[in-house]
Amino acid sequence: VVQKIANVLVTSEGERVMNPSYGASTSRLLFDITVPMEFADYRVDAIQDLKRYVSGAVILDIAVDNSFYSQTGEPTTAVVNAIYRLPLGSLQVAQVEIAAPGQLTEDSII
Question: Looking at residue 12, what DSSP letter applies?
């Protein structure tokens, strides 16, 4: 389930040829989004995408943190926590970290 969530979050809309609506375009958090209302729109869209494309889990919410900035003030990392529940299970969290080019670490998803 965690891999399915990560796949949806790191895939950009239009990236999959046979399914252009697949993906939450999380990387845009690093470049395009500057006002709180855009974060709210992203959150709603990402939750809908996760509910549509992740089977085997109930997606409850996501939390976005893009407060990681370089010394020049450019965003370097966005962290998305997806809160979900497996059938008959307890709450779980899948964390996906997206790094800006030039800020990659061995844990970054490209």
Answer: P
Give me the sign of the Cα torsion angle 56, 42, 17, 110. negative
Adjacency order of strands within the sheet including 58-69:
58-69, 75-85, 91-99
Picking from 26, 15, 1, the residue whose alpha carbon sits closest to that of residue 109 is 26
CA distance 30 to 7: 18
Alpha carbon distance 45, 23 (integer Å): 10
Q: Residue type for 13, please?
A: E
pLDDT digits (tens, 9 = 90+) for 44-102: 999 999 999 999 999 999 998 866 666 666 667 788 899 999 988 889 999 988 877 66
Q: Has this prediction a pTM greater than 0.85? A: no
Q: Are 54 and 5 in contact (CB under 8 A)?
A: yes
The answer to whether the beta carbons of residues 84 and 71 sit under 8 Å apart is: no
